[in-house]
């Protein structure tokens, strides 16, 4: 019962982050699960099995609101499913001792990406008259995103959503809806990969899966409230820093780094984190760029 409560709280925390940022459920949940003592492969397997249900529900919701480009879903999701199966197979084949630093390193890299992504700049506006993303761009992105997602316990959203938004070729709501729908294929494929790789151990994760699912359902309405109260730049930077710090501790411990060097590493991370939080705060206070208003001013000046 105690374990179920812990995993439910993990699900609540991960859903609050994901609901407010539109990404990072897997990264946050995996980091918190590993921190609570769950083995790396088991943590990723539990997260992806829980995401089979959450991504299906999310995809249906986005479909009802017409936020999905099915061509984008297939061109991104099918390669993503292949990458996820490979990532799950690789992580399952590693010993517990070897898997821990691999997963920590991947989560650390994703944490740095999220930290920089939300502290340095806002996503660009959608460009008018640009062409849609082609298969040559989406297939490698999906393959890489799926592999990182399964082998690192998360990362599909930070890798694919951020990349597509940065291109400015597709409306943000269509990007988020299509990536969410395609993540269902990734979650199913990763779960199958973990089922084959972990075998009997896969079913030991059911309490974890149940806790994550319950926590996610409980937190969903609060996440909707949070997104209207907290700046995504500040929240994303805060979450990125937590992911970096917690996974750095695991790598420092794995490589046997002791004081004073370990203290210096942690101090450097905390100082850098605080600096990025300050940058995110300034970014959240900056006036939003409104293209239509600027265009109107230009027309008026011309007159």
Description:
Helices cover 81% and strands 0% of the residues. It has twelve helices and no strands. It has helices spanning 2-21, 25-35, 40-64, 70-93, 96-120, 135-152, 156-167, 172-198, 206-227, 232-254, 261-285, 291-302. Residues 289-303 have low confidence and may be disordered. It has one domain. With 303 residues, it is mostly helical. The longest helix has 27 residues, at 172-198. Keywords: Cell membrane, Membrane, Transmembrane, Transmembrane helix. It holds the Pfam family TauE. It is a multi-pass membrane protein. Belongs to the 4-toluene sulfonate uptake permease (TSUP) (TC 2.A.102) family. The chain crosses the membrane at residues 72-93, 99-116, 137-156, 176-196, 208-227, 264-281.
The mean pLDDT is 81
Radius of gyration from the alpha-carbon trace, in angstroms: 20 Å
Q: Give the SSE order as H and E letters.
A: HHHHHHHHHHHH
Count of helical regions: 12
- Distance between the amino and carboxyl termini: 72 Å
Percent range of helical residues: over 70%
Instruction: Give unreliable regions as ranges.
Output: 289-303
Largest sheet: none
Number of strands: 0
Q: Could you say which structural class the secondary elements and strand pairing correspond to? A: mainly alpha
Oligomeric grouping of the chains: single chain
Strand content: under 5%
Broad shape = globular
Number of domains: 1
Brief summary of the model shown:
It is found in: Cell membrane; Membrane. This protein has 303 residues and is mostly helical. Helices cover 81% and strands 0% of the residues.
């Amino acid at each position: 019962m105690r374990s179920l409560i812990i995993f439910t709280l993990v699900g609540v925390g991960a859903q609050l982050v994901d609901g407010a940022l539109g990404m990072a459920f897997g990264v946050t949940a995996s980091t918190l699960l590993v921190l609570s003592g769950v083995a790396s492969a088991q943590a990723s397997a539990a997260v992806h099995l829980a995401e089979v249900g959450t991504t299906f529900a999310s995809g249906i919701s986005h479909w009802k609101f017409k936020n999905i480009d099915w061509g984008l879903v297939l061109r991104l999701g099918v390669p993503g499913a292949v990458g996820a199966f490979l990532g799950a197979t690789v992580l399952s084949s590693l010993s517990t001792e070897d898997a821990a630093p691999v997963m920590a390193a991947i989560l650390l890299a994703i944490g740095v990406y999220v930290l920089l992504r939300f502290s340095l700049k806002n996503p660009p506006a959608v460009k008018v008259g640009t062409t849609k993303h082609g298969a040559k761009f989406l297939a490698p992105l999906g393959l890489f995103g799926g592999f990182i997602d399964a082998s690192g316990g998360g990362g599909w959203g930070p890798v694919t959503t951020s990349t597509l938004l940065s291109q400015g070729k597709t409306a943000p709501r269509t990007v988020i809806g299509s990536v969410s729908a395609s993540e269902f294929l990734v979650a199913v494929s990763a779960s199958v990969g973990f089922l084959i790789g972990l075998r009997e151990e896969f079913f030991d994760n059911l309490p974890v899966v149940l806790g994550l699912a319950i926590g996610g359902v409980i937190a969903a309405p609060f996440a909707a409230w949070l997104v209207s109260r907290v700046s995504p730049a500040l929240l994303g930077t805060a979450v990125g820093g937590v992911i970096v710090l917690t996974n750095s501790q695991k790598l420092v411990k794995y490589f046997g780094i002791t004081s004073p060097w370990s203290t210096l590493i942690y101090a450097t991370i905390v100082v850098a984190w605080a600096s990025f939080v300050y940058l995110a705060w300034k970014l959240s206070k900056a006036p939003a760029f409104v293209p239509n208003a600027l265009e109107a001013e230009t027309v008026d000046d011309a007159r």
